[in-house]
Amino acid sequence: MKIIKTVLLFIVLTTVYLYSQAQKNNNKINNQKPTIIFVIGLWADGSCWNNVIATLQAEGYKVVSAQNPTTSLEDDVAAVKKALDRTECQVILVGHSWGGFVITEAGTDKRVVGLV
Fold first, then answer.
1. Pick from 47, 59, 99, 105: most CB atoms within 10 A?
2. C-alpha torsion 107→109→79→101, nearest 10
């Protein structure tokens, strides 16, 4: 289980790094890091991301863990959209398992700059 968390952390940090490099290359730096919203899979809750969240916050990122009700795709997308409404900058959505379906639907929001 620890190796899975390590791999997930690596993927998230790599994505955030690549995003920041793309912003620099396009001269679109706005001095604000994107907010990262984590979306859970089935049979889990937002606390699954605690270790990754702490690491990203230590790097200066704003991080939100959306609590999906997991009652339907529509309800889960609505929960992620509520989390999006709490942000004031660009967002990277990170989904695990079922969360991948959810972020694909919610990722059409104009604030979303990446899906992981």
1. 99
2. -20
